[in-house]
Amino acid sequence: MTTSPILSNYINGQWCSSEATETLNVINPATLEILAKVPLSPATELNHAAEIAQQSFASWRRTPVTERIRYLFKLRELLEQNQQDLAQTITLECGKTFAESLGELQRAIENVEVACGVPTLIQGYNSEDIARGIDEIMIRQPLGVVAIIAPFNFPGMIPFWFFPYAIACGNTCIIKPSEKVPLTMQKVFALIDQLGLPPGVINLVNGAKETVDAILDHPHIKAISFVGSTPVAKYVYSRATANGKRAQCQGGAKNPVIILPDADLEMTTKIIADSAFGCAGQRCLATSIAITVGQAKQSFTDAIATVAETRVVGYGLDETVQMGTVISAQSKTRIEGLIQQGKDEGAKILIDGRNPKISGYEQGYFVRPTILQDINPQGELARTEIFGPVLSLIHLNTIEEAIAFINQSEYGNMACLFTRSGAAARKFRYEAQAGNIGINIGVAAPMAFFPFSGWKDSFFGDLHGQGQHAVEFFTQTKVVVERWLSDWSRQF
Ligand code: NAD
Fold first, then answer.
1. Do residues 219 and 265 both lie within one domain?
2. What residue stretches are annotated with the Aldehyde dehydrogenase domain (predicted)?
């Protein structure tokens, strides 16, 4: 019998075994094969990483920014050369399709590319002669050690919303991946190991709650970028900020789309199906509720039901598959329980994806696309994040009612509208309370040079990840007022 390897941490430029007494199995959610064991690193290991990163910061911040980004140019090349291998690892541990894994890595690469622009993005501003012989300048300086805490659903992308910017700005960092999908970062760090970076600039510590708590309490760690569920985001934000740290915490979502009667039916249906069922609904920008307005109801309901029923579900490495697994047995049970809850609250299960039999993968954590019709707009299901391939349908009479329904949500990650009317689109863009808005778009994911903007309980903090926002988050401003006279004997 072969035993699964225990994954290592990467601290001070070296792979090191964890002294954790507890490990978790990393499982392929389609085959249930145990891929590895992940150590739940104790606080002492995180503290060691923080000490190392702090020591490394002293010289890294003095390294010229042009030199710092040269490592990113090299990382970009390595990511591209290894994209297929990395994508395979994402699919193995996360269950999504290979094409989806390639797609998330593309956004990771784009973030590295944008972070290569930090020499420009980090620039401050200046004003000469604010008084005679006096100039004022604003410069940006790095914070020190920063930490990134990631969720399970995009193991190859989400750390890249942050760390390329953090290190390009002169910070050192610690990454804690999700304990459910730690293999992708092992592979990424195998590439980071080839960069020749000074030891301690980027560190990897595997673990779960104890490791996170050590991050939240460590005095060397000045800023935290967190992505995950809303209850944990709230907890991380409050504990980190109570300890005087900067924090940006992305939380959960319940994303609605509105379909107006004038929307192009074929395009709208395809886009909404991709949004609701892509990555098995485990995207923070997945459509969860489709609101039909007026005459759109019957035609959209029929069309989306057909697409949901014919979606090819299976093992993500099979090229013909359009949708893979959900992440775990616990997640499958929870999603199927919420489908039942929707029914109990009065919805009709139009397409029921519970307990599918996927040939060759009978034990896998599959839920097929599911459609719940006429859910209770005031019910629990209309508010709860499902994070699975479940689309709930609601019918309302006007766009005003639809926007009012959207705006009562406690979440505000994404909202989309499907229409051919410019006036309706403008009204929606203006009034909808969400940080990411799509007009005839189903996954309004910002490019790497735009901030990833959630609102309400989808985000706690101020500056977001990616692009200029990340540069501002990972730097602090310093204003210098200076007097230089050509004639020091002059009276003034
Ligand atoms: P999660 O909150 O369970 O875990 C996220 C991270 O927090 C992990 O690294 C985990 O180890 C850690 N963690 C979990 N429980 C903790 C606790 N009690 N104390 C301290 N740390 C803890 O989230 P998940 O299930 O991995 O990811 C799915 C969630 O992430 C969904 O809610 C999804 O909407 C959200 N998400 C949001 C965005 C966004 O940009 N808003 C992006 C991706 C995912």
1. no
2. 15-480
